[in-house]
Design brief:
The protein is α+β, with helices and mostly antiparallel strands. It is 40% helix and 18% strand. Bound molecules: zinc ion.
């Protein structure tokens, strides 16, 4: 999945720190949290009860943890639990030996060899116990059935807690993860959607095999009304069965009185009805207004990560792979699409047509299943053995050519690169009018936002870059994710880190004109920024709750994952080693599920060169540790020592970790600094290490050549001075990536308090001679962060001085920019960054030019054109005038090309007029004039303005319930919303407000990692301000 805004490098910086180290054995749903709260170090002092995903009131206790007082049914539960490996069976050995409910308690020692006195005492004890039992027995409401009283026996600290099903019976499964005793083999799905009434009915037939003896089948189902259920064992008769449902965990279960035996096959058939979802997941309805003004409805799916269960009952975890045969009925005016090619169409008696798709020829995880009912039109092409089609609503068919051309090139590239042909006969790419994520890699049926697939006839290469990137990402998933799938969401990075890495790698080869390198460099910087926070998490991290699954879709899984793969590739000998390793991995695990170690082992097998480190040994620190290292260089004559420590931005200076990474350090010197052959390697795996003797004549070293490593470097006062000196004489002594990396690193070190802001400004002095995109855009982005903080804190004097500093520093470069069509993508990137900055600082010439462009555009009635990379700045300037804002709104309402529409929307949202700000926020929430999928973008843009950021915080608090109804707690959309609203606060008052609000949410989102990140960021802002405000007066 592409979470969104692949072209927005500001998006990184989001947060965490929930359950860092609890294993599944310590499954929170089972442990009595009131007793075991220490197992869950969580965000600020919440009541341990609040940590549980489900409301505690929904649980009841099962009596009978000692075998003596267990009735027959309970023994059934116990045997099932034993067979299915319930959580308490998996607890740590220490727990098990002392406190397992299945360990019979030894009788009291004092009674084992009775003396006369102890016999009297014991006798008395028995009488007292008997009396107490009778009292309890006759207590009202305490009937000793399973739904009984809380057990008071303190000798069994881990009481099993079974929840209650919707029908009042106990639900026989207590864990978030499904039992492993039953494995689905194939699904036969029949769906009958009714787009007039926004409902659907379905029948799901699941063929399963029994892996371990069990009396239970547990699977997922959410918001489905199951009307009939039958079960058939082997060749036996199909019999009606009762389905128990436990809604908080979206699970259903069927219990059997006789055990299903290992090796048996069985079939569960479920009939159900449901409403089409009105959010963006499950089987959801979508609509658009066509050019004749007629509202058209359609239905599409988005299942990743946890929503297949909303469309059909299923084993909705990635490791339960199976085959799928899908049938969908439709009106004759619609078409249907699914993962596989259509096999046949059958007219039904009610006038509808039922389309049946071929059974999948691959085993698939449920989150990759997809189907669509719509009136789309395709363009098509054959590539190798695959029929490739791009679908859109009919009036946008002309915008699909670029996508078709690009996907065909990329498909050929990947077929060749992975040495495994794309396994399906067809590949559809579909632009869906309502779609929250950027795109979704469903096997054979990739779904997109219109913005990420459609390209207008006059689009700039910068817009094409977005579309090509998303296609390259989703297509890479057909191998990484679809063919080989992570076993569980804790290793989501195996999907997303790889797809992200492959997207940049493939485009550099297939479409070099798109100059994707600058974007990849920028996203690596943003990943470092986010990972520097204490709320970050290890790439591969525990996931035990639905919101934690959602939260895995963040820059650590995507961009950090991609960054460490780049680092690995750059550190291997020869340019084919990495490729050989991943081919081996894909071939070895084709059709299967893997975890991170499987990948490192495959790569280790290929890497045979003795002078290179063992891949597994090197990389495990990068996936198992949170954060990344700071490498500090100290030099005495020819001796250069490197030391490493955790680069951790904390507001309290308290948390220091002893983490050590295995760092493949690269470096260049002034003797040879530009070509790859200049690079020298040093493997820093201890706290410190010494490079081989450097000649005294060497003036400077630059580490992390082209920033391919995931670490930050501090050169010490002298080292920085030497680099600054070299750059002021000649900017070309380093590659542009190295220059950008110095800029990024020095700002980061300033935040860490290792260098003064004065040193930052010293480095930036060289920039009057800088002409390359990545150093310029990085410096502008970093300076803008501080300018925005000063502005929002109403430090008007300092903000004004920062503004004149920026305009002075970049003025001549800004002046050099033209407002005409520009060919080079890299120049477009730099121009748009410079001009957006100039106009946002009200630089007069910029404003005049932008206004003139808008006027000409409006007056020409659509015949003149604003260059694609300049549309944003032009629309943003226009939106500041009363009259032009109205014009822009009307243009927005009539525009059909989605990428342009989004720029207009960002313009509209940049208004400083409070009434309009309120209007646009509300419109985004309502979803009429502005689609709700755009609300995160609207909020992000509004927050940049001084007036807007104050409104947004109120808006979020007032509308929290509506927001989490539309965007799941923990989702990327919510991460964006929280970050946008809070990242510019820097005062105690704001910190208190934010803290109070999120604490009050409890299970409605208080535990989100983005909340922790927000609080941490405010504290860090506060600290930076306290430290630097007094001295900024002097430096600026
Ligand atoms: Zn993805």
């Amino acid at each position: 999945m592409d979470p969104f805004d692949s072209n927005n490098t500001e998006r990184a910086n989001l947060p965490r720190n929930m359950i860092e180290n609890s294993m599944f054995e310590e499954e929170p749903d089972v442990v009595d949290l009131a007793k075991d709260s220490t197992a869950f170090p969580t965000f600020p002092a919440l009541d341990p009860d609040d940590v549980a995903y489900e409301p505690r009131s929904s649980r009841l206790l099962v009596r009978g943890l000692g075998e003596n007082d267990m009735d027959e049914d309970e023994e059934d539960y116990e045997s099932s639990a034993r067979l299915l490996g319930m959580s308490f069976m998996n607890r740590s050995a220490a727990h098990r030996s002392n406190s397992s409910p299945y360990t019979r308690q030894a009788p009291p020692r004092s009674c084992s060899r009775p003396s006369a006195r102890t016999m009297v005492v014991c006798g008395l004890f028995v009488v007292i116990m008997a009396s107490m039992t009778m009292v309890l027995y006759f207590l009202p409401g305490c009937n000793f059935t399973k739904i009984g009283c809380r057990k008071t026996n303190k000798t069994t600290p881990f009481e099993q807690v079974y929840p209650v099903s919707t029908n009042g019976e106990l639900f026989p499964w207590t864990k978030f993860r499904l039992p492993r005793s039953i494995h689905p083999l194939s699904y036969d799905l029949t769906l009958d959607p009714d787009l007039d009434n926004m409902t659907f009915t379905g029948r799901t037939v699941i063929n399963m095999s029994v892996l371990h003896n069990t009396k239970l089948i547990v699977l997922h189902s959410a918001n489905l009304n199951i009307t009939k259920a039958t079960f058939k064992l082997g060749d036996g008769e199909a019999k009606d069965v009762t389905v128990l449902e436990y809604k908080p965990r979206q699970q259903i279960a069927v219990k059997f009185s006789d055990e299903l035996k290992t090796g048996q096959y069985c079939v569960l058939t479920l009939d159900y009805s449901a409403k089409l979802s009105h959010t963006y997941d499950g089987f959801y309805n979508s609509s658009y207004t066509d050019t004749d003004g007629i509202k058209r409805v359609l239905a599409a799916t988005q299942f990743e990560p946890l929503a297949a269960r909303k469309a059909f009952p299923c084993f909705d975890e990635p490791s339960f792979k199976a085959t799928f045969l899908i049938r969908i009925s439709r009106k004759p005016t619609y078409l249907t699409l699914s993962n596989m090619p259509q096999a046949k169409s059958t007219p039904l008696v009610n006038g509808l047509i039922q389309d049946e798709f071929e059974k999948t020829n691959v085993n698939m995880s449920t989150y990759l299943v997809a189907f669509i009912v719509a009136n789309f039109t395709p363009v098509r092409k054959n590539v190798s053995e695959t029929l490739v089609s791009v679908y859109s609503v009919p009036e946008k068919k002309e915008h699909t050519d670029y996508a078709l051309d690009t996907v065909c090139k990329l498909l050929e590239f990947y077929n060749d690169f992975f040495e495994i042909a794309y396994p399906l006969k067809k590949l559809d790419l579909v632009a869906i009018p309502d779609f929250l994520a950027g795109a979704m890699e469903n096997w054979g049926l990739i779904t997109f936002r219109e913005t990420t697939l459609l390209v207008g006839k006059q689009s700039s290469d910068l817009e094409k870059q977005v579309v090509a990137s998303v296609i390259a990402h989703e297509l890479a998933h057909q191998w990484f994710g679809n063919l080989v799938t992570m076993r569980w969401w804790n290793d989501l990075w195996l999907n997303e880190g790889f797809a992200t890495y492959m997207q940049y790698m493939s485009l550099q080869t297939v479409l070099p004109k798109l100059d994707i390198g600058n974007l990849f460099l920028a996203v690596r910087f943003r990943a470092l920024d986010k990972d520097a926070l204490n709320s970050s998490h290890a790439v591969s991290t525990d996931v035990n709750k639905p919101e934690q699954v959602e939260e895995m879709f963040d820059s650590v899984s995507y961009e950090k994952g991609a960054s460490i793969l780049l680092m690995l590739n750059a550190s291997l000998s020869g340019d084919q080693e990495f490729r050989k390793g991943i081919i081996q991995y894909l071939k070895q695990f084709s059709g299967l599920n893997t975890d991170t170690n499987d990948l490192w082992n495959s790569l280790t097998q290929v890497e045979v060169s003795p002078q290179h480190p063992n891949v597994s040994e090197m990389m495990s620190s990068w996936t198992s540790l949170k954060g990344f290292p700071l490498v500090t260089v100290s030099r005495k004559g020819g001796q250069v020592t490197l030391t490493q420590e955790h680069f951790l931005l904390t507001s309290d200076n308290a948390t220091q970790t002893s983490s050590l990474w295995n760092i493949p350090v690269t470096y260049v010197t002034d003797n040879c600094s530009l070509a790859p052959e200049c690079t020298q390697m040093f493997n820093l795996k201890n706290k410190s290490g010494t490079l081989k003797e450097i000649p005294e004549s060497v003036k400077w070293l630059k580490l992390n050549y082209r920033n391919t490593g995931f670490y930050i470097v501090h050169y010490g006062d002298e080292g920085w001075a030497a680099l600054i000196d070299a750059l002021s004489n000649n900017v070309n002594v380093l590659t542009h990536e190295d220059r950008a990396s110095l800029i990024h690193n020095i700002f980061a070190l300033s935040r860490l308090g290792r260098v003064s802001f004065h040193q930052v400004l010293n480095l930036l002095k060289y920039m009057s001679n800088e002409t390359q995109t990545s150093p310029v855009t990085e410096a502008l982005l970093q300076l803008n962060v501080f300018y925005q903080l000063l502005d929002k804190r109403q430090e008007h004097n300092l903000a004004a001085r920062m503004k004149s500093y920026i305009l002075h520093q970049f003025g001549s470069l800004m002046d050099k920019q033209t407002w005409k069509e520009e060919e080079s993508v890299s120049k477009q990137e730099m121009r748009s960054a410079l001009l957006e900055m100039a106009c946002s600082l009200y630089e007069e010439k910029c404003i005049q030019q932008a206004q003139a462009q808008f006027k000409q555009y409006v007056e020409s009635n659509g015949t003149s054109r604003i260059p694609g990379d300049l549309q944003q700045v032009v629309f943003t300037v226009a939106a500041q005038s009363n009259e032009d804002w109205m014009t822009l709104l009307s243009m927005y309402e009539h525009a059909t090309y989605d990428a342009e529409k989004r720029k207009m929307l960002r313009g509209l949202a940049s208004t400083q007029d409070p009434r309009r700000i309120v209007w646009i926020l509300k419109a985004g929430l309502r979803g009429d004039t502005i689609p709700t999928q755009e609300l995160p973008l609207v909020i992000h843009t509004v927050c940049k303005g001084f007036a807007g950021y104050l409104f947004v915080w109120d808006f979020i608090q007032e509308n929290w319930n509506s927001l989490i109804e539309k965007f799941p707690v923990g989702s990327f959309a919510m991460q964006t919303i929280i970050k946008s609203a809070t990242s510019q606060y820097s005062t105690q008052a704001h910190l208190d407000q934010v803290q109070d609000f999120f604490s009050s949410l409890k299970e409605r989102g208080s535990q989100m990692r983005s909340v922790q990140e927000a609080l941490e960021t405010i504290k860090l802002n506060q600290r930076w301000m306290d430290k630097n405000l007094p001295t900024l007066q002097k430096w600026l």
